[in-house]
Amino acid sequence: RECLTKTNQRWMLIAQDDPTTTMLLKRLDYFWTSMPEKTPEGFERPEKKDDSAYQKSFVGLNSSIRIQTAGATVPIHGETLSGVHLTEVSRWTAQAYANVMEGLEALPLGAYEFEESTPNEYGDHFHRLYERVKRANQEGDFNHYALFATFLEVDDYRIPRGQDFVVAKDRNTLELTEEE
User: Is 34 within 8 Å of 42 (Cβ atoms)?
Assistant: First the structure.
């Protein structure tokens, strides 16, 4: 959202693989297309300047977002970023994660860094990071924040009762098995 509503923003979104990168680009396009000409906060939908497979930039704002995969050698070098969003980090290889972490050392003071993922493996690099940050938060260090949220807490993952696109037998009442 920052790239679409604020001036002079440079963001990077790094995903675990090419299909996810493509899907995220489609989501960004959907967000831009769905944005009203003027938002309730008073932001006008910016005109797109670059619209490539890996970058979107916006006229008038001098802002852009670049999207790429974690497998790039060191994808952050050469950029002065306002923020970086690392998605599905638990799915990255340890080497890809190490390469990106090396690049994050170049983030300017005040830049945002978001790392998010669904669980993958107990003890993997993302799990260790989460536990380290959680311990630091418990000790009063809030340079980073650990936040755990389940899918049940996000309305986008809920289907209202009676929707036509739900399997007919599950339309009104969902009955779970013992295992579920």
Answer: no
